Amino acid sequence: MDTTLSEFSEKKPGSRAGRPNCPRELRDRLAAAACEPGVSVARLARENGINANMLYTWRRRYLTERHAQPAGMLPVVLLSDPPTQAPAAPSAIYKH
């Protein structure tokens, strides 16, 4: 984790005081780090000068966006001939 919030703390025109506007890449990097096993979200937030609740929100949004991405296309194989033998029904296999 090389980048901290203090590097991005310059005041932007129109931004509210006391509420930093963090760049998207910093939010995503911190959210990804917060998803790692064994990482304390509170400690990570404190080390980067942000509120832990904000980091939890970024992490939740990051995970939602990551799972919402389309899976992509999968190859499909069409069989021209139907199966020659139908599988046996489960009740025919298990006789009591």
Category from helices, strands and their pairing? mainly alpha
Provide the β-strand percentage band: under 5%
Q: How would the global form be characterised?
A: elongated
Number of strands: 0
Q: Indicate the low-confidence ranges by residue numbers.
A: none
Helix coverage percent? 40-55%
List the secondary-structure elements in sequence, H or E.
Answer: HHHH
Distance between the termini: 63 Å
Q: Mean pLDDT, rounded to whole units?
A: 78
Give Rg in angstroms: 25 Å
Helix segment count?
A: 4
Describe the main β-sheet briefly.
Answer: none
Structure, described:
The protein is built from four helices and no strands. With 96 residues, the protein is an all-alpha fold. It has a domain at 22-69.
Give the gist of this structure:
With about 100 residues, this protein is mainly α.
SSE diagram, text form:
Blueprint: H1 24-34, H2 41-47, H3 52-68, H4 90-93
Helix pairs in contact: 1-3, 2-3
Keywords:
96 residues, 4 helices, mainly alpha
